[in-house]
Design a protein that fits this description.
The structure is a homodimer of 456-residue chains. Chain A has 456 residues and is of the alpha/beta class. Chain A is built from 18 helices and 16 strands. In chain A, helix 1 (14-22) crosses helix 17 and helix 4 (61-70) crosses helix 5.
Chain lengths: 456, 456
C-alpha cells in the first residue's frame, strides 16, 4: 500500500478524498487524512477501509514530521500560510508535495533544493489557480504550435450560486470564504493592458468598471478587474500580448450594488468601529453618514450616494436589512469589513439544499495566417450538494489527479511547479472531462478593443 | 554669549532666525545655523555679527555631536524623521531641545531619561501643531476655570494663497510642501465624533463631506476632516466632549474639484505608472479611463465622473492642462501622486510677488451656569513676502520664543513636552500678538449639530 497523506480536510477536500478512495483498491492506496478537528474528515471517509483519520496539530512538530516521514506523497489542503512548514518537512524526508495555492515567495526559495533532490512540489493546481492555468495554456500552446501570434488574453472566474438556488436580489450567496468576498479587490490598484495601453482602476472605482459576459444557456454575467493581470505575461509566455485582463465574475447588477458598501466605507478592514458589539445594523450604516438627527438614515444614504427612488439597488439594501434598529451586530472590536460580513451572512449563507456554481470564461485573440481570430472558451459547473460542491470538485479533483500522477511517475519534472506544461495539463484536463468538468469553445472573428484600428 | 544651535534652515526658519538675531545683542546670543546646504542660511543671516553658518551633514556623527555639545540649546528644524538623532545627542550632552513637529513614539520613549536629567524637550510648537494647541488650550482652560463644561470642540487650519495673489480657478497655490497637499487625507479613515456619535469617512469620500466656514472680511471657506480628531480628547483633556472634529481649510470649491483626482486614482502614491517618463499629461489622464479609442479623453472623463457641460470643475481641469498631448511628464518610474504633483506645480507654484495666508478657525461649545454658548475664534495671517511668509512666521516665531524662554529659565517643566500648559502658552500667545499673530473671538448661542435635541 502507498500512503497519501492529506493534511487539512476543509470544505474543498470532499471530491479529493472521494476520488482517491474510489481508486484506492486498484491503485493500492492508503489515504491518511490529518486534521486538527477530525469530524469533517470522518464524514468524508465514511467507513472506507483504505482511509485512516488522524488528529494532528501541525504546530506539534514531532507528530507532523512523523506523519510526513511515513507518507509516500503529501497533499496540503491547509490555509496557504501553513504550506511552508509542510514543504520543509517534505524536503527533509524527500517526499513529493501537492497544493492548490499560489506559490509564495518563501516557497519559491526552496526551488533549488527541491530540484537537487529530484522532488516535485506541484502548486496552483486547484480551480483558480489551477484549472484556469491549465485550460488557458492548452489553448495558448495550440495557437502557438499552429504558428499563431497571441494578441489578447482575457480570463474570468466566479464562484456563484447555481440558478436553481438563486433566490435573492443580489443573485449571490457565499459559496466560499465570505471574508475574501468582502475584501475582494483591496490591497492595490487593478492594473491591466488593453491594446497596448496600461490602465489603472483604484479600488473605489473597481465595481463601476465592469464588463458583460454572455454564456449560452446561463445568460449574462458581469466581471470586475483583478489586481494582478500583468503577472500573467511572464507565467503564460505572453510578453508581447496587447491585451491582458483577468477578472472576477458576478451576476449582472451585483457590482453596482456592492459599490454602495465600498463608497460608504463598509468594506474597510483596517480599523475598528467604536462600540461595535452593541451597535444595531442601523447604527452601523449611520456611522458612515453625516450627523443629522432630523433626517432618516434612509434618506441620508439615498442623498449621499444619489440612489433614485426606483433604483433596484435600494431593494437589495433593504433585503440585507441594513436599516434594522433591532438587529445587533454582537462582534466586539470589529472592523467595518467584519461587521458587513456578519450582516451579509444573515442573507447569503447557503441553505441545506442550495447548490453552488463555478463559471470560468476565457477569450484568446490571435493572428494566424494573416487573419485575426478569437477563441472564446467557457466552463460552467454546478455542485452536486453541499458536500460535493462545484468548488470542492474543481479544486479537489485536479489536486487528486496530480498527486496520483506524481505517485505513479507520470509527472516527474522536479522543482516548485505549477501546471503550465503540456505533459501536466493535457492528461488532467482530459480526465476532468470524465467528471463533467469541461470547456465549451467557439471560434469568432477577432473583436479586440479597437476593431477599426483608430488612433495610434 | 549663549549659543543657540539651529539645525536645518529650510523655508520655515526665516522668521525664527530674524527673531533671534533681533534679540541677540540684548540677550547675549550667538546664533549658529547648521545645514547641509548653507545658501539659504547665508541669505537669512545677512552680515549679522552674531550669526555663524556651519555646513553640517547630520549623518556625520562626530561633527554633529561636536556642534550639539558646544550649544546652550538646540532647535531642530529638520524634517521630523531626523529629530530623534538630535534628541539623543541632546540627552548625551544634557542640552534642551525645541522642535515644531509631532512627538513621535520613538521620541516619547526618551521621556523618562529626559525627565531624570531635568531637560526640556519642547515639541509641536509651530503652527499646526503649535499655535492650534496653544490657542485652543487657552480658551478651553478659561471655560473650565469659570466652571464651564466643554460640549464641542472643532478646529480647522489651512495654508492658502493670500487674496491679493489669488488668481487661479482653484483659489490655491502651493505655499508649503506640495507632496503633503497631494497625499493629504490618505493612510486611514477620517474618524470623529459629533453629538456623541462616531463618524467615519473613507478617503474616497473625504472631499465630498466638507463644511463651510465664514470669516469676517475674508468670506467663505470650506473644510474637510482630518484623520486624527479623536487623539485630541486625551491631549486637550476633552474626554467627555460630545463633538470633536479637526479639519483642513480650503477655498470653497477646491475639494469638489480635487475629488476628481481622487476618483480617477491620480493621488495614489503606492505604485509606479508604466512608462511615466515619456508620457504626456493627456496619456496620464487617459490611463485612468476606459480604453475607447473612438472617444475623446475629455468625453470619457466627463461621462465617467458625471461632470456636467457647464460645471466649473471642468474649467479647473482645463486650467491645469491635464488633457495636453504635448506636455511630457519627464519623471521616471513615478507614482500617480508624483506625476500629479508635477502637473500641479506648473500652475500652483507661487510667483515672486505672491503672498501666502494662514487661516485658523476654532469653535468651542460649552455649558456654563445652565446656559449653552459657543466661542468662535479665528486667526488670519498674510505673509510679508516669499521669505517671511505667513507659514514661516507662524511656525518659526513660537519656536524662537519657546527656545529663548527655555534658555532664560522661564519654561522649566522637564520631559518630552508640548505647549498645552498655561505657563507655556500664555506668554507666547501674548508675544505673538506683537507680531500680528492674534485671534478674533466672538461669543454666540450654542449651535451644535442637534439644536432641537432630536433623537437620542
Amino acid at each position: 500500500m502507498r500512503k497519501i497523506l492529506i493534511v487539512g480536510a476543509g470544505r474543498s477536500s470532499a471530491a479529493l478524498v472521494r476520488y482517491l478512495l474510489d481508486r484506492s483498491a486498484q491503485e493500492k492506496l492508503k489515504i491518511v487524512i490529518a486534521d486538527i478537528s477530525v469530524d469533517h474528515a470522518r464524514k468524508l471517509a465514511g467507513d472506507h477501509g483504505n482511509c485512516e483519520i488522524v488528529e494532528l496539530d501541525i504546530f506539534n512538530e514531532a507528530s507532523r514530521k512523523k506523519m510526513v516521514e511515513s507518507a509516500s506523497i503529501v497533499i496540503s489542503m491547509l490555509p496557504a500560510r501553513f504550506h511552508l512548514k509542510i514543504a520543509k518537512d517534505c524536503l527533509e524526508f524527500e517526499k513529493n508535495l501537492v497544493t492548490a495555492s499560489y506559490i509564495s515567495k518563501e516557497l519559491m526559495e526552496l526551488d533549488e533544493e527541491v530540484k537537487s533532490k529530484g522532488l516535485v512540489f506541484m502548486n496552483e493546481i486547484g480551480l483558480d489557480p489551477g484549472i484556469d492555468h491549465m485550460s488557458a495554456m492548452q489553448v495558448i500552446d495550440r495557437i502557438k504550435e499552429k504558428g499563431g501570434k497571441m494578441l489578447l488574453f482575457e480570463s474570468f472566474t466566479g464562484g456563484l450560486v447555481a440558478p436553481e438556488s438563486d433566490n435573492n436580489l443580489w443573485n449571490y450567496k457565499f459559496t466560499w470564504n465570505p471574508r475574501n468576498v468582502v475584501v475582494a479587490g483591496q490591497g492595490g490598484v487593478a492594473k491591466f493592458i488593453q491594446e497596448g495601453k496600461y490602465k489603472y482602476i483604484p479600488y473605489h472605482k473597481l465595481f463601476r468598471r465592469t464588463e458583460f459576459l454572455d454564456i449560452d444557456g446561463y445568460g449574462r454575467f458581469e466581471a470586475m478587474a483583478n489586481r494582478d493581470s500583468l503577472n500573467y505575461r511572464e507565467i503564460y509566455g505572453l510578453q508581447d500580448v496587447l491585451t491582458l485582463y483577468r477578472g472576477t465574475i458576478r451576476r449582472v447588477g451585483f457590482c453596482r450594488a456592492w459599490n454602495i458598501f465600498v463608497q460608504l466605507g463598509m468594506t474597510d478592514d483596517s480599523y475598528v468601529i467604536e462600540g461595535s458589539e452593541m451597535m444595531s445594523y442601523r447604527d452601523f450604516t449611520n456611522s458612515f453618514l453625516p450627523y443629522k438627527p432630523h433626517d432618516s438614515v434612509e434618506l441620508k444614504l439615498r442623498h449621499y450616494l444619489k440612489i433614485d427612488q426606483d433604483d433596484v439597488i435600494w431593494d437589495k439594501l433593504l433585503e440585507l436589512d441594513i436599516f434594522n434598529p433591532d438587529k445587533i451586530i454582537g462582534l466586539k472590536d470589529a472592523t467595518p469589513a467584519q461587521i458587513l460580513q456578519r450582516i451579509l451572512m444573515d442573507s447569503w449563507t447557503l441553505k441545506e439544499d442550495d447548490k453552488d456554481m463555478i463559471v470560468m470564461y476565457h477569450i484568446f485573440g490571435y493572428e494566424l495566417d494573416g487573419r485575426k481570430e478569437q477563441v472564446v472558451s467557457n466552463m460552467v459547473i454546478i455542485g452536486e450538494d453541499q458536500t460535493y460542491t462545484a468548488m470542492a470538485k474543481t479544486v479537489g479533483l485536479p489536486v487528486a489527479m496530480a498527486a496520483l500522477s506524481i505517485l505513479n511517475g507520470k509527472i516527474t519534472e522536479p522543482g516548485i511547479q505549477l501546471p503550465i506544461s503540456k505533459e501536466v495539463y493535457d492528461p488532467i484536463l482530459k480526465e476532468l472531462q470524465d467528471h463533467g468538468i469541461e470547456f465549451k469553445e467557439k471560434k469568432e472573428a477577432y473583436l479586440g478593443y479597437n476593431p477599426h484600428n483608430l488612433g495610434a
